[in-house]
Amino acid sequence: MMKKNVFDSKIKAAEALAEYAAGEIARKSGYFNLAVSGGSTPAGFFSLLASKYQKVVNWSKVRLFWVDERCVSPDHEESNYRMTSETLLDHIPLPAENVFRMRGEEDPEEEARRYGNTLKELVPSGEGIPVFDMILLGMGDDGHTASIFPDQISLMNSSEICQTAVHPVSGQRRITITGPVINKGKKVVFLVTGDGKRAMMEKIFRHDPVYPASLVQPKSGELLFYLDKGADPS
Ligand SMILES: O=C1O[C@H](COP(=O)(O)O)[C@@H](O)[C@H](O)[C@H]1O
């Protein structure tokens, strides 16, 4: 099932998503396994969780994972972990043992293997694939999602849980969960904002198969879009 939610501003989209995520966490008994994206878009959502929902959410039941990471040290300005720490983790009582970062500073191939094994060990699986309670995705204006870029679209159909990737322009190495893991998620949520994303969003809603974000089609989970009106093509 697919549901599109459009809001007047990116702050309103982040507010609605924070309310939704907090509700989903509250509804779950046992661990809530959440995988988050990086880049710049989730910062507002994370900040809201860290302020408005800091005392509302039972953070000890959240286990936090990453959808993708840039192969840099965790204090690097481009680190997805660093962005999440500064906007969310530094402000909430989420136990350190519930935080499972991708180690961008390690050898990428080894780290992709290690992280895949961590996911297999900790996240309940279906048909051998980890099933996250929620996966937060972003979309680049080139149609990539996670660190799966159009020129490496085979990662959407990989037999691995986690793989390495390369940014097509900068050549920066990346580690990413693969398409089958994304499509196993119970709630797969795109947060996309800004006029600059509208043209690509239109292609994604047309399911243009050239773009990885178009191939996000959860098998039995729910696909949700949180957009601001700038990113909405309709
Ligand atoms: O490189 C990345 O890009 C996407 C989109 O980022 P945004 O800054 O345009 O929101 C992001 O979802 C991914 O996690 C990140 O590594």
TrEMBL record:
Key word Metal-binding present: no
Descriptive protein name: 6-phosphogluconolactonase
Pathway(s): Carbohydrate degradation; pentose phosphate pathway; D-ribulose 5-phosphate from D-glucose 6-phosphate (oxidative stage): step 2/3
Record field: catalytic activity: 6-phospho-D-glucono-1,5-lactone + H2O = 6-phospho-D-gluconate + H(+)
Domain of life of the source: Bacteria
Gene3D superfamilies (UniProt xref): 3.40.50.1360
EC number: 3.1.1.31
Gene Ontology annotations of biological process type: carbohydrate metabolic process; pentose-phosphate shunt
Protein task: Hydrolysis of 6-phosphogluconolactone to 6-phosphogluconate.
SUPFAM superfamilies, per the entry: NagB/RpiA/CoA transferase-like (SSF100950)
